[in-house]
Amino acid sequence: MLEAKGLHLQRGSAEVLHDISLSLKPGQILGVLGPNGAGKSSLLGALCGELIPSQGQVRLGGRSLAEWAGQARARQLAVLPQVSSLGFAFRVEEVVGLGRLPHASGQQRDREIIEAALHAADAQHLLERSYLALSGGERQRVHLARVLAQLWPGEAGATLLLDEPTSMLDPLHQHTTLQAVRSFADRGAAVLVILHDLNLAARYCDQLMLLEHGRCHALASPREVLTPEALKAVFGIDVLVQDHPERGHPLIIMR
Amino acid sequence: MKQRVQPRTLFIGLSLLCLLAVWLSLALGPVSLPLLDTLRAGLRLLGVPIAADGLEQAELILGQIRLPRTLLGLAVGAVLALSGVAMQGLFRNPLADPGLVGVASGAALGAAIAIVGGSWLGGIPEWFAPYLLSVCAFAGGLGVTALVYRLGRRDGQTNVATMLLAGIALTALAGSAVGLFTYLADDATLRTLTFWNLGSLNGASYARLWPLLVVTLAVALWLPRRAQALNALLLGESEARHLGVEVESLKRELVFCTALAVGAAVAAAGLIGFIGLVVPHLVRLLAGPDHRVLLPASLLAGGSLLLFADLVARLALAPAELPIGIVTAFIGAPFFLLLLLKGRH
């Protein structure tokens, strides 16, 4: 469970975040949407302690982020960055196994979790492959498995922050990945995910935040946030919003 | 994917290799001893009660010359390889070298000051004179590395890229200062300086050995404790932080261990290149990048490789002796090029 109140973030002379408040609740996925440069990744950086806000504070499990010891925090909070630069020939299971570093759960248990996490990210067939031999999308799924393994099985209290986890994935794996995140949340984890695809956000998220120039334009359910007016104002696109014929969530169609 | 050597097999193989290197290093030289005599004399030196008949000469050569030289070679090779692992981890680049943080060039500067300046100064107490070179080299290495580290810090964070650039700049600066001392040196000191820059295990003595052994032991015990943190660091600094690693203190430890280890090695044996670069690479090719295996295996492989290089240095032009830095560079540089070319595919 992660809470941010009145976050302001300064980068150089520019204010990249202005008065952002949000709370990640157990079992819920909060999607963050916004055009390039709106401050999505800065928000994620501020939420995980990587960037220090000039005002406001972030609390994890009721305690300020700075009060947490590194390992204890890593058992509660996992972060998937947009790109990872790993230049060494680890095997896939070793990369995922790094997620178990903050735990002392024993080799046997770790191996089970690594397999389960790889399975959840639909990457179990990559077992024993060299990380360097993987494609960009496969690497992204391996890193997703790594952060899932870090918080496995994803009970209440676990918080997962994901920065564009689907950016390099094919359509099928965009859905399998977010489905994995969904079941993680259903087991009790609190999730924040930065997305670009409005329809993926509408389908998998419980709440959406629309960011524009570092300000929160809207924070509510997908149906309330994804309106033609809001999308016109923030992204400058003309869209139709209809209901998904089978699933009922809003469907965004470009005009 | 390519099969890896099992850690157990690797450690058994490397231990045998290391024993073989030690044995040959004790036996071979200007006066070669029969291998069996070497073994018996070696065991006697270790306190095993064996009849001494006909072993007096072997024992004398071993105890006075070959054993300190062999131990020096083992320790220098081991710490250079360990520092190579530490730097490649710190810079998250398999082509990084312990020289990157300026420790080698700083030590070279310290040595140049000692060799050239020492002959001007005169009034150095007699008991200290033999240590002057080592102490200056060690201090120079530590000093320049501290400066590089300092330059890389901003707002309580160490920027590894800035450190790398600062290391390059200070290496160039120290190089020009060494050049100045070279220009000012007379013929005799010039020769000493040149040979020191090429590295040698010659003239090993227990007095010069023990500080290095202490450092070797300390680094060899400390770094493996950080093996998992180093693994995480390869993912990236922020990823390592998210995995609970105290990244700033890890970076500090890595730089400190490297400065201490390379400083002590260079102070004892001069500049010996490529061991720190090539050995971790070789081990990674065999057993993968996991630091829990990489660190101890590099220690064994580095020690063995340096002893073999020293054997070449001793035997190639016997009774004359090649500087060992020439041998390691002669083997290491083509190997490095090979890695570069292979890496392109």
TrEMBL record, chain B:
One Gene Ontology biological process: siderophore-iron import into cell
Record InterPro entries: ABC_BtuC-like, ABC_transptr_permease_BtuC
Example of a GO MF term: transmembrane transporter activity
Membrane-crossing segments per the record: 71-91, 100-122, 128-149, 161-185, 205-223, 254-279, 299-317, 324-341
Membrane topology designation: Multi-pass membrane protein
Localization in the cell: Cell membrane
Matches recorded under Pfam families: FecCD
Keywords: Cell membrane, Membrane, Transmembrane, Transmembrane helix, Transport
Cellular component terms (Gene Ontology): plasma membrane
UniProt xrefs under PANTHER family: ABC TRANSPORTER PERMEASE PROTEIN MJ0876-RELATED (PTHR30472:SF25), FERRIC ENTEROBACTIN TRANSPORT SYSTEM PERMEASE PROTEIN (PTHR30472)
Family per similarity comment: Belongs to the binding-protein-dependent transport system permease family. FecCD subfamily.
Protein name: ABC transporter permease
Upper lineage: Bacteria, Pseudomonadati, Pseudomonadota, Gammaproteobacteria, Pseudomonadales
